[in-house]
Every structure is written in structure tokens, then in C-alpha cells.
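Per reviewer request, we include the raw input and output of the structure prediction for the construct analysed in the revised manuscript.
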Amino acid sequence: MRRYLPITFFIGLLISCGRSSAPKSEALQPSALQPSALPLSALQPSALPAAVLQTGEYPLWFQLGEAGPFLIETIEDARFSAALIPWPLAPHFRFVLAGQDELLMAVNRGGFLKLAPWSAAGSSNGSLGLYHYSGGDFWQQYTVGAFVFFEEQPAVLLYRDDRFLDSEAPLPWPRVWTIGMESNSPVALEIPALDIFPAGEGWDADTLRGSGGYWYYRLIKKGGPQPEIRMLRSANLGEEGESVSLGIFQNSALPEPLAAAPAPLGEFLSVAFTATGSSAAQVISPEFSQPRSFVGSGGTAPALTAFYRSGEGKTLALAILPNGQGLWLAQTDAETAPQPLSLPPLPEGFVYTWAGIAGDSLFAAWEEQEEYNIGAAGFMVIRLK
């Protein structure tokens, strides 16, 4: 049976994951606390966590719903719980970014989520704050086209996707949103290079990415008998970009060679490619302004979802196949080697799509897939060893 808890109902609760019947993951260690109240006076700043999570040996499973994420007892409870619909229309984790010790998620048709270490009354107890920034009715009309750091702010680009549904919604304006500190609502963000093409004149922007020192973006003028398409690039999004050819624009989306990765990450991915049979990885890192893709040579397995963080004499990295098998590394010296990692198994038709580390816990997004359709979607958090 699904335990349905709208996330706003457990503000201030410490959620534990001590279930003795849950399957164990060999790369993870136990920690189990009973739920306890958290004083509201500790909930600062004004953007409040929707929940405070105490992770442990057994996973906490969350599913995305209309009102935000809600807790489910096991991943099996998500089977057959949502209709399979084309991915641009489905709630799911479209993109994930990594801060220094936190993770930021852009939820398609939903808003933002954030996982960050949480401490109350000045003391840290290894908990995670789960923040929900709902996009409300406005976001439910649009598809997330990009998620990047722009001037150190996480920025989501929304567009109207008409491939599978003739939407009656107006073109999104504002089209770019970020997270504010004053409330749990997204905040509009101006990007001058995009705003030169306003929605009021029929322009929709569906792509924004960085590559080779440039920002690349695409705009489509809709509403006429023939759509007009502009592909541009700019070294500075504060001013209008220059037009580029289709070939240059497409090449900006190609994966980078493994040699372009920071040295510790490149070495880790090389080991991960050999161990998993993959030859491609999509990586999130505090060092990157967006997810970056790297490729090696050979390999036929699906691409890995990966995370990398280095600093203060320690390197953290993980790389996971869609089935949850992979490697992780907590390196403090050159002798430390990557270790096997097995995430909790998923039902048939489900895959892991993103993975990262917040505090001392592992986050992994999952979704139900069938060709280009997505059904149920959500995430899992569990304490790292």
C-alpha cells in the first residue's frame, strides 16, 4: 500500500529510514533514528525546507506528484501509479546541478527541488533539508529546456513543447526562473541575450547550453505559417549573440573527450568505463555550470550518470548505470581505489537517470520509461558508507 503524505504535511519532521525488512545495499552503512519534532524557530532562512530527512542504511523513496514529492513505502508502490505520457509533458527530473554540498533539481512541469545539509540550533546531525519551490499552474503548462548556472544562480529555461500536444497556453514569459531566498516560490530571472526575442513577438527559446567558452541558444518564432528559427551563440549572455550554422550549433551538443575532464574525474571515469562496459557519462559537479557529457572509446552499455566533487584533500565521485550498478570513490590519497556500488533494484521498466551526493547521502532520480514516454518518477536518498 502506498503511504501518501503530501510533502507540505510533514514540514519540520525528521524522517527516518529504519525499516528492518528493507533490502540492504552492500556499499551503504546503517543509521536509523526515530521521527522527532524540529522546532519551527530553527527553520531559517525564510525559504523553508518541506522536510528534514535523516538518511540511513535503507532508502527513502519519494515520488513526484501534483503538489510536489511525497513519501512512498517502497519503489514497488510506484508501479502502474501514473500514466505513460511523452516526456516533454511528464513530471520528472529533467536536469540536476551540483552546488558545493547540495543538489539542485529542475522538475519538468513542476518547479525546483533542493537537497542540502541541515542543522538545527547551530548543530549538525547529518540531516538533509528537502526544499520544494513549486512553479504552480504556470510551470505545469511548459517543458524545461535547460538548467544552468547563470552568474552563479541556478536558471531554468521554460518553453512550450508542441510536438505531442497542441497547447493553448501562451508562450512562457518570463521564460527563465531561479531560486529565491525569500520564499519557496521560483523567481523570474532576466537573461538579456534571450529577452531580445520576447514571447510577445512570438519567440520561444527551447535550448541554452555552454560549450567551448560560448553560450549556445535557439529561438523559434511561432504562430506564423512557417516557423522562423534562430541559432545563436554568445560569450556573454548580457548582450545579443551571433548567428551560427546548424552544424556549429549541433556540434556544441556533442560529448567531450575524456581528456577534457579534470584529471581525477577522467581517471575515475576511465576505470568506470572499463568496469561497466559503458563509454559515455553525463556528469554533474560543483565545478561545472551545467551537466557535462564525456566519452571514451569502445563500450556498448548505456551511458552512466555520474557525480564529481574535489576539494580539501578529498575526491568524491560516483558513476551509475541505469540499472543501479556502478562505482564510487572517496579518495584521500593516491592509493584509494574505486569501489563497487549497487543501488536498490528497481521494478522492470524503471531506470536511474541522475545521481549525486548531498552532505553524506546519495541521491538518485528514477523514472518509469517506455520508449519516449515517462510514467511514475521520483527519487531515492540513502546514507553513504
